[in-house]
Specification:
The protein has about 170 residues and is mainly α. The protein has 2 domains: about 90 residues, no CATH class; about 30 residues. The protein has 6 helices and no strands. The chain is globular, with a radius of gyration of 21 Å. Its main location: membrane.
């Protein structure tokens, strides 16, 4: 369907923009395959798929604002699903969850206002790309730091740090 619609647009001399995704036969196989793989890897490692797919959408040629908004939309559903699962299994501390919701909401509002201000001031979409790169880089550093800290704490406590049986 995408290939057919894209071909019709080309026949009608549709004025494609630089940020339009060209759904060629190759692109309809490559991009969805990469997205599925990114989603699987993100699920296995416990990170949001939106974090992985944001840069991927930039690589596809999407505008940074569209990529950022789409990533945030995906993260909303991932987070809501995880929170619902924790709630159903009784593992969600409601006060803690409420505090984190308020902090996250306020952080989102402040971040959105800050990025909007920078976009208006400098008129460059690259600000969004830089913000995404900084957030992903900081997240990677923090994940590494927390993992290292937990590993060292485990060694000090005399815990086994090797592999365990899968079905144990």
């Amino acid at each position: 369907m995408l290939i057919h619609r894209h071909a019709q647009r080309e026949l009608c001399s549709y004025p494609f923009f630089d940020c339009d995704i060209r759904w060629t036969p190759r692109a309809t196989i490559i991009w969805p395959t990469i997205c599925v793989a990114a989603g699987l890897v993100a699920g296995m490692f416990g990170i949001g798929g939106g974090i992985v797919k944001g840069p991927l959408m930039l690589e596809m040629g999407m505008q940074p604002a569209v990529s950022s908004a789409t990533s945030a939309y995906m993260i909303l559903f991932t987070s809501a699903t995880a929170a619902t699962q924790y709630f159903i299994f009784g593992a969600l501390r409601l006060r803690y969850g409420a505090v984190m919701f308020v902090v996250g909401f306020c952080g989102t509002v402040v971040g959105q206002m800050g990025v909007s201000y920078l976009l208006k001031r400098w008129g460059r979409q690259s600000i969004i790309v830089i913000v995404i790169a900084v957030v992903i880089g900081f997240s990677c550093l923090m994940m590494g730091a927390v993992g290292t800290f937990d590993f060292i704490q485990g060694i000090r406590a005399g815990e086994y740090q090797g592999f365990h049986a899968l079905c144990a």
